[in-house]
């Protein structure tokens, strides 16, 4: 749908002069975004993406853009933010925060095979390691605290069975989050929304992760669980597809070996990852922010996944686990 803040080539010509990218030659709005206004820009030095942030503030944005810059500098495939002559990554455009990043080649792979899952697993591990010592600590804003704040807003809309499911799961997650084992899990900046539509491929070659605007600090194994729950499932039933799960986990493990604690946490994290998106989808469905929003995502998909992850054993993490 959306370009919320229209921009023309004439508008941005003077604005672009502050970036070392040469003259802007063409600009084209991107229809598919739902949060921000996005544009492909062709300049004398290549192709870029301009984002005008519609909801995030100047104060919030450095976490995301500096994180992407750091990842790009460490060889993780992500859009690289471009600094202006003053070294700023976020600059006002039409009174709103805006940024320019490099354009990734390719397209999203919505029907991934094990080979794609392996690429994603390996790059995810590289991303976790590269971001480990990132100096800005922002919590995952869709974590436990948000779950507690949001649960009462959706409960009145749910059937009794789903109210029970929601209450029982948040209780289980609370109990797990209060353990020593949970607190000792490796953690740091995570993408937290690495669904198929947020990764680009050129054939079987991964060209980049993007849409970092749900990123925050959380456990790495939670990030792996979010990714597995979208990439490695039968989309109709929500069942895990073992060939894809193993391809992703083995490739991740080869770069950053899983720990014994993560093996214990794994099933609860698969549940947490399903719960997080069930809850956000319920919230968007019952409390839409804007009448013009796209059709909300189906909460039933993650309700099914959560029920499956609660009742079935999780496929084990690869062996040769590290102590911590
Ligand atoms: N750096 C990039 N390189 C290539 N395409 C991009 C890039 N950033 C965004 N896009 C394209 O723009 C679309 C919308 O971006 P997205 O980040 O999902 O927007 P929003 O946050 O508004 O939902 C993506 O689906 C993708 O096709
Ligand atoms: N992945 C989430 C929705 C988040 O929005 P995005 O399209 O910007 O990734 C979901 O599927 O519920």
UniProtKB/TrEMBL annotation:
SUPFAM superfamilies in the record: Protein kinase-like (PK-like) (SSF56112)
Enzyme Commission numbers on file: 2.7.1.39
Reaction catalysed by this enzyme: L-homoserine + ATP = O-phospho-L-homoserine + ADP + H(+)
Pathway the protein takes part in: Amino-acid biosynthesis; L-threonine biosynthesis; L-threonine from L-aspartate: step 4/5
Domain named Aminoglycoside phosphotransferase: residues: 27-258
UniProt keyword annotations, A-Z: Amino-acid biosynthesis, ATP-binding, Kinase, Nucleotide-binding, Threonine biosynthesis, Transferase
Molecular-function annotations in GO: ATP binding; homoserine kinase activity
Pfam families for this protein: APH (PF01636)
Biological process according to GO: threonine biosynthetic process
Protein family (similarity comment): Belongs to the pseudomonas-type ThrB family.
NCBIfam families per the UniProt record, alphabetical: PRK05231.1, thrB_alt
The protein's name in its UniProt record: Homoserine kinase
The organism's taxonomic lineage, starting at the top: Bacteria, Pseudomonadati, Pseudomonadota, Betaproteobacteria, Burkholderiales
């Amino acid at each position: 749908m959306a370009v919320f803040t229209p921009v023309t080539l004439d508008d941005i010509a003077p604005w672009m002069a502050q970036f070392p990218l040469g003259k802007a030659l063409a600009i084209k709005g991107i229809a598919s975004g739902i949060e921000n206004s996005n544009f492909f820009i062709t300049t004398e030095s290549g192709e870029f993406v301009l984002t005008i942030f519609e909801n995030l503030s100047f104060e919030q944005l450095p976490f995301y853009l500096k994180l992407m810059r750091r990842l790009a500098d460490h060889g993780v495939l992500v859009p690289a933010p471009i600094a202006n002559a003053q070294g700023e990554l976020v600059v006002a455009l039409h009174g709103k925060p805006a940024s320019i990043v490099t354009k990734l080649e390719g397209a999203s792979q919505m029907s991934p095979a094990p080979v794609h899952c392996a690429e994603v697993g390996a790059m995810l591990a590289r991303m976790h390691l590269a971001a480990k010592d990132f100096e800005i600590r922002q919590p995952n804003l869709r974590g436990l605290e948000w779950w507690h704040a949001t649960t009462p807003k959706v409960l009145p809309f749910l059937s009794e069975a789903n109210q029970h499911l929601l209450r029982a799961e948040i209780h289980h997650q609370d109990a797990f989050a209060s353990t020593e084992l949970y607190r000792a899990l490796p953690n740091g900046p995570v993408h937290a929304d690495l669904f198929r539509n947020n990764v680009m491929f050129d054939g079987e070659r991964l060209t980049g992760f993007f849409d970092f605007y749900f990123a925050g600090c959380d456990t790495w194994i939670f990030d792996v669980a979010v990714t597995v729950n979208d990439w490695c499932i039968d989309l109709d039933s929500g069942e895990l597809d073992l060939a894809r799960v193993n391809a992703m986990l083995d490739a991740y493990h080869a770069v950053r070996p899983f720990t014994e604690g993560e093996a214990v946490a794994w099933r609860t994290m698969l549940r947490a990852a399903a719960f997080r998106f069930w809850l956000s989808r319920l919230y968007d469905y019952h409390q839409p922010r804007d009448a013009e929003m796209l059709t909300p995502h189906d909460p039933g998909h993650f309700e099914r996944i959560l029920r499956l992850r609660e009742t079935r054993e999780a496929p084990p993490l690869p062996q040769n686990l590290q102590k911590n």
